[in-house]
Design goal:
The chain contains 7 helices and 8 strands, in the order βααβααβαβββααββ. It has about 210 residues and is α/β, with parallel strands linked by helices. Helix 1 crosses helix 2 and helix 2 runs parallel beside helix 4.
Length: about 210
Amino acid sequence: MSFDYNYPMEKILIVDGSNLLFQMFYGIPKKIYNSQGDTIHATIGFIGAMFRMVNMVNPEYISVIFDSETPSERVLWDENYKANRIKDWDSLPRDEVPFYELDNIKKALNLLHIHFLETKNREADDVISSLVRQFQDQYEIVISSFDSDFFQLLNERVKILHYRGKQTSILDQELFYEKFGFYPDKYVFYKALKGDAADNIPGLPKIGTK
């Protein structure tokens, strides 16, 4: 007598915490304030999104990774890296800075017993990629992020969730192929040629998407 031990693999949901924080802080049309005058709308949106994503993915394990508040070592390699982004957050009014909601979000995650960590001198991308490489042979992995850098990690066990409420979508390697005409393992070469305006990285002159 033979037995079939081909059980479904357990799932890990990895959330790009800083990406989701910015999405909620700037994407919710009306700011909400607490009695102290601090914004809380990103916290409400963040935790609500976490509940919805858990219901969609039904993971056995969850981890939320936040970017470090200190510059990554990539700035040492190229001083122009992400130079197009806001650096002097202290010059902005408090209710225009998403990071002030981080403490509340972390407290909520602790209450929900959801694992999180904040990187040091690294980007969340680096830690998430390391987790994927470490666990993709034993688990199905869903990365929640709008950062296109994660496209290179797509394979038969790794998918990317784009959270948009009821319009949430999940990208796998076949859908990626339909869009780009090549498989995800070649995406790093595509970005090297094309460049990345979001990170202020130039591509080769006169080389575009086509």
